[in-house]
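Worked problem 6 (solution included).
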Amino acid sequence: MKIIRGFTIFAVSIALILSVYSSADAAKRVPAASNKDPVIFVHGFTGSSSSFDNMKQWLISQGWQSSHLYAIQYSNTTGSSINNAYELQSFIKNVLRQTKASKVDIVAHSMGGLSTRYYIKYLAGSQSVDDVVTLGSPHHGTTSSYFGLFTEGAREMVPGSPFLNDLNSIDETPNGSDPAAVIQYTSVYSSADTVINPYTSSILDGAKNLQISGVSHSGLLTDASVRPLILEGLEDGGVNAN
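Solution. The predicted structure is:
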């Protein structure tokens, strides 16, 4: 009986030790999701929230909880970035309420970068945003907009438009309202982007500007070479030099 009792104690001890090491290994393999801000995905001109589906799945593989990944669908995909910014404000307010988070990160494609910046500059974004990553956003306009001048969104993207002049005045990368944690910006753009013309229009003063090649405008959403740049931007790898 003593032998059996001793063996039982030994077996239980080994099981406990193995469970501790298994838990530790699991913690190393999967990043702590609780330390990550919710991510808001913002589509562009004529875009859709579904264009970020692949990116969501990839971020889940990088440790984000699916419940912390949200893509907005604007009611007017060719409308004013100002109106879109107000929709974004309501959307993010709801996300913060649902997740109990204090701030969000934003990944914005194309024209979505303009409504994102307007939200930060003029609405509640100065208090609610941590990191911003824009992908092929026409921060200084695009000549492609001339093909859509019947829409308000395209008119705002005309180089030198009143909207862009106002958005880019004084500071293109506002710090936000928290001096201890300024908003970090990353702008990723491609020399092969024929929609944003010139492609250098995506350069954002004060941000970390990352030029790549061989990736189309829509490819910025799915190309494997872009994903590490997005990940770095979401993990406080951006810049705010203003």
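Discussion: The radius of gyration is 22 Å.
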